[in-house]
Design a protein that fits this description.
It contains eleven helices and two strands. By secondary structure, it is mainly α. The protein has one domain: MetI-like (MetI-like fold). Strands 1-2 form a two-stranded antiparallel ribbon. Helix 3 packs antiparallel against helix 8, helix 4 crosses helix 6 and helix 8 runs antiparallel to helix 11. The longest helix has 37 residues. It is globular and about 70 Å long.
């Protein structure tokens, strides 16, 4: 019986490893193909200058700057609202039909295609609020798209903190907010960081939402205010790959390589920060 159980366990682990390999291999091959074809074109001039000669020469600095601005704007708009909403749902809201509907709606919003968010942002921010195609309209649209992921990840991180922490804090005379602030949030930070970076990474690579709200085909100068348009790496990659004739493929691959590197750096920073907080707070 013991040998049979061990054999069955080995078969299960082998199947799990094979499934993981099948999922990871295409991703690794894609990254390798993009990096190997694009890395020779990634020079300091390519990263620090704007496009020239009909985008077939020069660099992508305006697109890099625009992407970073949109990521920061998205984080500023979505992070406080997402975390506070999750705190309310987990720590303060009663378990009734209304809150269950809210939680179900948040989960459903995570599956809405990005093009729908783009049309919604265009209708609400660009047309109704008359913000025009601008940084603020694009950041708000991406923030709305990121909120479901942030709320869900924060909610799960808060729920993973043992209830005994809350009970001990309240029994010592702490208020509800003091309990959340000092006994729950510090232990939930690693999970919150994971959800935040996942949502921002998705926002950094989206084309459809910024297509309607902020992205420009080509700009001769950098943005000066939040009401200006910007170039962005995802849209720039789409433009040079499909709309610009005689575009060297090496430049397209180099742009994709920079976008992958930007997302990788964001995730690496999140992993390091998460590991730091996990070492400080353990239960």
């Amino acid at each position: 019986m013991k040998n049979f159980a061990k054999t069955r366990e080995k078969i299960a682990f082998t199947m799990l490893g094979l499934a993981t390999f099948i999922v990871v291999l295409p991703i690794l091959l894609t990254i390798y193909y993009v990096v190997s074809n694009g890395s020779p074109a990634v020079t300091w001039e390519f990263l620090s200058k704007g496009p020239t000669n009909g985008m077939t020469e020069g660099g992508i600095f305006p697109a890099i700057l625009g992407t970073v601005i949109l990521i920061i704007g998205t984080m500023v708009c979505s992070l406080p609202i997402g975390i506070l909403s999750a705190i309310y749902l987990v720590e303060y809201a009663k378990d009734n039909l209304f809150t269950r509907l809210i939680k179900l709606s948040v989960v459903n919003l995570s599956g809405i295609p990005s093009i729908v968010y783009g049309l919604f942002g265009f209708t609400l921010f660009v047309v109704f609020f008359r913000l025009g195609t601008s940084i603020v309209a694009g950041a708000l649209t991406l923030a709305i798209m990121s909120l479901p992921v942030i709320i869900t990840a924060t909610k799960e991180a808060l729920e993973s903190v043992p209830n005994t922490y809350r009970e001990i804090s309240l029994s010592l005379g702490a208020t509800k907010w003091q309990t959340v602030r000092y006994c729950v949030l510090p232990y939930a930070i690693p999970g919150i960081l994971t959800g935040t970076v996942l949502s921002l990474s998705r926002a950094a690579g989206e084309t459809a939402p910024i297509l309607f709200t902020v992205a420009a085909f080509y700009l001769t100068q950098l943005p000066h205010s939040i009401f200006d348009q910007v170039m962005a790496l995802p849209y720039h990659l789409y433009v040079i790959s499909t709309q610009v004739p005689n575009m060297p493929t090496q430049i397209s691959f180099a742009t994709g390589f920079v976008l992958i590197a930007l997302v990788f750096v964001m995730n690496l920073f999140s992993i390091i920060l998460r590991g730091h907080y996990r070492k400080k707070k353990q239960w």
